[in-house]
Amino acid sequence: MNRYKILLGGSLAALLAMGFMANSISGKQAEKEALNTTPVVKADGIESRNDRWAGHFPRQYDSWKKTKKSETIVDMLEQKPQLAILWAGYGFAKDYNAPRGHFYALQDNINTLRTGAPTGPDTGPMPTACWTCKSPDVPRVMAEEGENEFFTGKWARLGDQIVNPIGCGDCHDSKTTELTITRPHLLRALEASGTNPDDITYQEMRSLVCAQCHVEYYFKATAYTDGAGKEQVAKVVTLPWAKGLSAEAMEEYYDSYDFKDWTHKISKTPMLKAQHPGYELFKTGIHARRGVACADCHMPYRQEGAVKYSDHNVGNPLDNISNTCLTCHRESEEEFKSLVKGKLERKEQLMEIAMDNLGRAHLEAGKAWEVGANEAEMAPVLQLIRSAQWLWDYSIASHGSFYHAPEETLRLLSVANDKAQQARLKLVGVLAAHGTLNYQAPDFSTKQKAQQLAGVPLAKLVDAKMTFKDTLLKEWDQNAVQAGRLNPETRKGMSDISSYTR
Ligand code: HEC
Ligand code: HEC
Ligand code: HEC
Ligand code: HEC
């Protein structure tokens, strides 16, 4: 790896920022040397128990633990009821919250109604792949079982294995503490998109550790023969980067396979669900272009006496402006806060229009089917809806996009709006051809109304989830503690909250 490959920027600001980064990197070298004398956390394999790193690296551990302070749930279906219509027939219409601290990654994955209420290792709606971005136990199990084996079976199969939330072993080598990529899907995607992993710079690693998870992906069905000679199909997390990282390039990739994540329950559209292409969208923005890494803003350096360390409380950089933005910029805190707020407001306005248009397009298409429209009439409409929703989703599922890459975000939302409008115009014609004039889509202005239209049996889902939490989940945790995979002390004082109550 070439640690000192620093790109030449164009502007004075860029040069200043570069100088700052170069300083940080050489400052880091001193720390690195000190680190060389520290004991090895685990000589062989991956140490997934975060508390086992604490004694060696108390500052990093204590700051990492602060991600536990993120103790509110923002129910996005409550905030933006259109979402339940847009995702009708798909898990996200059941439950979808804004992201919070890394400490809660596992709890939120277990609590979400999307992962259902399994009663044993072979039941439930989701594959094991849903654990992929939640825990350092994932690379540990992959190393123990094999990658295809990890990706085989139901989510519930690994319930007593994946028990420590996102932590040290996700981003660091357990033997050397060096930053490392623990998820093979990222290495494959980099190669598919033309990057040789040997050319990755140190500064790039400070973003790529995040790109293991904050990226778009799908589950690729992959046939293999297991150790016992049995034919199996793994659902392997795959990043659709082979044609490029832009929304349009990924859409072309998916279209070339006729891929769909699900069929929309109301409009019957073969849909794509964008996950969280945060890294991809970030790459189109000015900070990425000038060589700024995710860690520069989300993990700033802190000074404690003679020791400089990276703040592992990954959260909102604006909570901590003097250590983040102001290390490179000269503006005041107020100026920065209002600047970021302005970017958010512009995105919100276009996003609301896009979601309203898309919601209506689905409902109008549902009506068209109901009054007798045929496949040939509907095909161009559904193609527009698929594309519009993909572009909208790509731009907003990439959390923080309004700030990371505002121009690209607004461009995507504008094109999404145009396509959704085109679909609706065509639908006026289709509906008229079947004798329906002036159709008004039903009201979907609250979560309850929207979920009803989307056919989500909320009370039933919640009931089943509560039973799961009282039974199988308890067994998982007991097994993990008994096997020494989980230290129950690390969960002490952790609140258990979700978007629903029984
Ligand atoms: C999401 C990825 C991620 C996780 C999780 C993570 N780190 Fe880091 N860590 C980083 C990055 C990025 C740096 C900065 C690397 C650099 O610039 O040298 C870093 C730096 C470090 C360093 C070098 C000194 C410093 O502070 O810059 C140590 C030691 C360290 N981390 C320990 C830990 C420990 C212990 C944990 C678990 C409690 C942990 N890390 C969790 C990404 C992570
Ligand atoms: C192993 C997967 C993984 C890695 C690696 C990872 N993240 Fe995350 N990140 C997540 C998940 C999952 C969530 C949502 C957790 C939740 O809502 O319970 C999240 C949440 C976040 C949040 C929201 C926090 C909040 O309080 O609102 C930020 C910001 C974030 N990550 C930034 C980063 C950055 C920067 C890096 C790299 C230094 C990184 N993440 C590395 C998976 C990961
Ligand atoms: C130049 C600074 C900067 C860089 C570099 C940066 N971010 Fe951000 N990020 C921000 C700001 C500012 C926000 C918006 C915080 C807010 O208002 O919620 C944000 C928001 C986020 C969020 C959403 C948090 C939430 O709770 O909704 C995630 C996730 C995130 N960033 C991840 C990343 C990842 C991954 C990278 C690298 C690919 C990255 N960021 C690079 C400044 C930065
Ligand atoms: C590591 C250095 C670095 C950090 C940290 C950083 N920036 Fe920047 N920022 C830059 C560079 C370099 C540019 C590009 C300047 C240019 O090319 O004109 C830039 C450009 C900008 C711009 C102008 C482009 C645009 O998107 O409108 C804004 C605004 C901005 N930064 C805000 C922030 C905020 C807010 C934070 C903290 C969350 C932050 N920056 C953190 C280096 C940094």
Query: N-to-C SSE series?
Result: HHHHHHHHHHHEEHEEHHHEEHHHHHHH
Main sheet characteristics: 2 strands, antiparallel
Gap from first CA to last CA: 52 Å
The share of residues in extended strands comes to 5-15%
Order of strands side by side in the largest beta sheet?
1-2
Q: What is the approximate shape?
A: globular
- Number of distinct helices: 22
Spell out which ligands are present.
Answer: heme C
Write the layout of secondary structure elements.
Blueprint: H1 12-36, H2 51-54, H3 58-65, H4 76-79, H5 82-86, H6 105-111, H7 137-145, H8 147-150, H9 168-171, H10 184-192, H11 202-211, E1 218-225, E2 231-238, H12 247-256, E3 262-263, E4 270-271, H13 278-282, H14 286-289, H15 294-298, E5 301-304, E6 307-310, H16 333-370, H17 375-397, H18 401-404, H19 406-433, H20 447-453, H21 458-470, H22 472-482
Antiparallel strand pairs: 1-2, 3-4, 5-6
One heme C (HEC) binds at residues 11, 13-14, 17, 20-21, 286-287, 290, 292, 296-297, 317, 324-325, 327-329, 336, 339-340.
